[in-house]
Amino acid sequence: MKCRFTGFGIIYVRVGPCFRHDTGSLRGRLFSSAIMSDIRKLLSYSFSKGKQGGNDDKDASKKAEKRKADQRSYDKTKRKRLLKTSWLSEFDWAIYDEHENALFCRICKRFPTLRDPDSSLVKGIRENYRKETVKFHRKSIKHIKCIEHEHVLRKPHTSKIVQSAQKADEKNSPVYEKLFNTAYYVAIEGVPMTQFPKLLELQEKNGVNIGSNYRNNHACSDFIESIAENLKSVATKDFENARFISILSDGSTDKSVQEQEIVYVRYVDASGHVCTKLADIVALDHGHSQGVKAGIFKGLETVGMTEEVISNKLIGIDTDGASVNMGSKSGAVKLIIDNVKTYKGNACQNYITVVHCVAHNLELAVCDAKKDCAYLKRFEEVLKGIFHFYYYSSNKT
Question: Around Cβ 131, how many Cβ atoms within 10 Å?
């Protein structure tokens, strides 16, 4: 006898030859009570096994989830992921710095103006190395831009920008030059960008061919950004070629009372001329000495100068006499010098010259001198009175 279930819960039984009569088949007929009893036992056994199997599946699922939770906890607290040397061959742009004991992206370090400063491979991975982190960096937009930029430097003729410029009409080049010059004037003189279209109209009235495109303040913003990137890339190259540098910095607050630090770099170029160029204006997270030091390093990093490069080239620091900068124990200058000394190989690190800003020193000297001279006090009051009279008076026609 064979038994099976249909989709609607109907039992279908096939009877073997021993239950046949001489006159024909017994399929589909009622069976004796003994046969039905056997079927009930078979069904009861099957249902009990199925229920037990369901409980076993639930227990197995709970155990699997517990194992996964334990594995995640172990990965976060105890497991130490080591760097595999095979990754350096698989990702040819990944390099391991033995001095800093960290994994970096070689290409992103080369282009500080394009890279993502918050990326793990830009800051450096020093523990818990994960291949997923390296793969994620490979797919990031900033990393792809750095790769494209390096490819352009190797083969300039393959650049899309170069190809587009070659296909552009030569008649448009003088027009673009005038647009860029006008945008540069707006930036240098501090003219509102909304005046850019009016300046173009004025030039057009004077007979200058300005063209019909890019005549709005948004285009002016794009022009200024492109000029700034180009000037910054030139400064970065000059700083890279300079043998020694000095840092000049000063702090102030903007209209929103946000602490800002302006950072300049002074160096001697290839022709022997002393040059001073702006590195960056950095918004400080904190106004104390640690915040000022971090802001100076952040500003220098935007022009491709890492802490290691600074330690090999720095010979002078110039700032005002505020205690947050010139403090002998915990001032920003003291912190910078201590940081430079952590890198070996710089012969000048013990001879860094610290200069108190001459203009600031002169101001302090005058302020001290006027305290004992009534004439200077009166002179200052008269000058301030004249200034306030004209500064706060209404405009005259």
Answer: 14
Better pLDDT: 255 or 3:
255
Average pLDDT over residues 228-252: 90
What's the 3-state SS for the chain?
CEEEECCCCCEEEECCHHHCECCECCCCCCCCHHHHHHHHHHHHHHHHHHHHHHHHHHHHHHHHHHHHHHHHHHHHHCCCCCCCHHHHHHCCCEEEECCCCEEEEHHHHHCCCCCCCCCHHHHCECCCCCHHHHHHHHHCHHHHHHHHHHHHHHCHHHCHHHHHHHHCCCCHHHHHHHHHHHHHHHHHHCCCHHHHHHHHHHHHHCCCCCCCCCCCHHHHHHHHHHHHHHHHHHHHHHHHHCCCEEEEEEEEECCCCCEEEEEEEEEECCCCCEEEEEEEEEECCCCCHHHHHHHHHHHHHCCCCCHHHHHHHEEEEEECCCHHHHCCCCCHHHHHHHHHHCCCCCCCHHHCEEEECHHHHHHHHHHHHHCCCHHHHHHHHHHHHHHHHHHCCCCCC
Is residue 201 scored above 90 in pLDDT? yes
